[in-house]
Amino acid sequence: MRHPGGARTVWHRLIATHDHFDLDAAALQWLKDVKYAELATYLAGVDAGGPAKHITDLGVVVPAFCDDWSLPVRDYAEYAALLRRTARVAPDTGYPPQVFALTLCLGWPHVTNPQHILRVHTRTPILLLNSRHDPATGLNWARSVERQLGRHGVLVTYEGAGHGAYTQSSCMKRKADDYLVSLEVPPRGATCPIA
Length: 195
What we know:
Elements: H1 6-17, H2 20-32, H3 36-47, H4 62-68, H5 76-89, H6 97-105, E1 126-133, H7 139-149, E2 153-161, H8 170-182, E3 191-192
Helix pairs in contact: 1-3
């Protein structure tokens, strides 16, 4: 179904007239699962006057997440300033996953394992899996981890979309399963084609 002005025009009309957080959260869920047709049908329904989905579960285990991420925001004023900055930098995604996380972890008493430069030394190299187009954990993050691991880790990239690269293709499953059996990583730069 074609819309005058395209999908972006429809999206901006929707976020101007509906709860932006709920629309972003619903979109993120379907994008992570590579359910583009379902997302398009949902957005078309909301645009035609149908009900917007209210998101009550973002699929995040809050204690585990908040204990691993230092997200220092002192108060609402600082949070609101971050939202304004996000809107300027990325006007199509007003509530990216990292901003969701800020609201989940506000007031968390102590972060045990905050983000830090990795210093890993292991006899068994670590296998990393990531999709090229993952809306929740960007490929740039996985590449950064691979660089930090050096000879202690290798990234395998699924050339498609979706979150949770292991389940995205039989090639990714095979590479991960082979690693678990042999404890040997594939050559650096290994990829899996779109299934």
